[in-house]
Specification:
The protein is 26% helix and 19% strand. The strands form 3 sheets. The protein has an 8-stranded mixed sheet with strand order 2-1-3-4-5-6-9-10, sandwiched between helices. The chain is globular and about 60 Å long. The chain starts with 14 loop residues before the first strand and ends with a helix. The chain folds into 2 domains: 200 residues, L-asparaginase, N-terminal domain (Rossmann fold); 112 residues, Rossmann fold. The longest helix has 15 residues. By secondary structure, the chain is of the alpha/beta class.
Length: 340
């Protein structure tokens, strides 16, 4: 059922809904120059009211979907968020969506939505690296720019985007690359989609991979996703970690491998035991930049494994969770990781 919203129509402007989930952008601390703060302290209406001229960009409505630091983001919130987006964008009264979100897991939420949102209307995530009470907090400008991108007719058909630090990134390509500085989000393989400077939007190229209206994935009627765990490879890694995850009920496993998605001999054998039991194992890499080669140093067909291609471990986990909503062969899974 489509929810009809009432927007103020003093001007002929796009209708944008801002869905808030918490994060640093809604955080508050005791000191303007200290690093300590608590996420999710400011509600969405107060955040909107704190941004000068933002209502000149669009007719705005805010909804509070969650109010957590993104380290506590959950599959339940993902499903609630995606279902609400699909509900809102199915009608003619909403032209785009902005989501405020913590930065720790923002790329995962963006990629999840990129696979399950069923509209080509703009969906834009934003956040901040400094809480609202900090000196030079960048959240208000990030929110302003995110609304500008969502309200711009040129933004249609780009899939889900992340707007931070005057840059527009695709959900497929964006990665959190630095711990605390404002330039944390980058797209090292495919480059940023474009820029947004005080609301002035410019796109350079389209995003990579199948997404949104062209995606095969659907969450209609889905209440939970299959459990998928990540193993972090390192020197002399314990191979029993994979066995433990399988015994604990994991339906799929992602390896944050060394180099080209590699792992030591014992872990490779554990991966082979898992795939022999029908538990898919995807080889990603802990290295920040680069693709994992199919049948490279690890010959996937010999171990039953799948290459993550360009997806980092956390995004590979998202894709595998959705893929496992139906029965698939190893070859089917590999095709998905190439195409998405």
């Amino acid at each position: 059922m489509v929810s009809i919203l009432t927007f103020g129509q003093a001007e002929k402007l796009p209708n944008i809904v801002i869905l808030a989930t918490g994060g640093t952008i809604a955080g508050a601390g005791a000191s303007a120059t200290g690093s300590a703060y608590t996420s999710g302290q400011v509600k969405i209406d107060a955040m909107i009211d704190a941004v000068p001229n933002i209502r000149k960009l669009a007719n705005l409505k805010g909804e509070q979907i969650a109010n957590v630091g993104s380290q506590d983001m959950s599959v339940k919130v993902w499903l609630d968020l995606a279902n609400r987006i699909n509900q809102l964008l199915a009608g003619n009264d909403v032209d785009g969506i902005v989501i405020t979100h913590g930065t720790d897991t923002q790329e995962e939420t963006a990629f999840f939505l990129n696979l399950v949102v069923k509209s080509d209307k703009p969906v834009v995530l934003t956040g901040s690296m400094r809480p609202s009470t900090a000196l030079s907090a960048e959240g208000p400008l990030n929110l302003y720019n995110a609304v500008a991108v969502a309200a711009n007719p040129k933004s249609k058909g780009y899939g889900v985007m992340v707007v931070m630090n005057d840059e527009i990134h695709s959900a497929h390509g964006v990665k959190k690359m630095i711990t605390t500085p404002v330039q944390t989000f980058q797209s090292p393989e495919e480059g940023m989609l474009g820029t947004v400077i005080f609301g002035d939007v410019e796109f350079f190229h389209k995003s990579f991979g199948i997404n949104t209206v062209n995606s095969e994935f659907s969450i209609d009627g889905v209440k939970a996703l299959p459990r998928v765990d990540i193993v972090y490879a390192c020197a002399d890694a314990s191979p029993d970690l994979i066995d433990i995850m399988v015994n604990a009920g994991a339906k799929g496993i992602v390896i944050a491998g060394v180099g080209d998605g590699n792992m030591n001999a014992g872990t490779l054998e554990a991966a082979k035991r898992a795939t022999a039991k029908g538990i898919p194992v995807v080889r990603a890499t802990r290295v920040p930049i680069g693709a994992v080669l199919i049948n490279g140093e690890v010959v996937d067909k010999d171990y039953g494994t799948v290459s993550s291609d360009e997806l980092n471990p956390q995004k590979a986990r998202v894709l595998l969770m959705l893929a496992l909503l139906k029965q698939r062969s190893r070859e089917d899974l590999q095709k998905l990781f190439i195409e998405y």
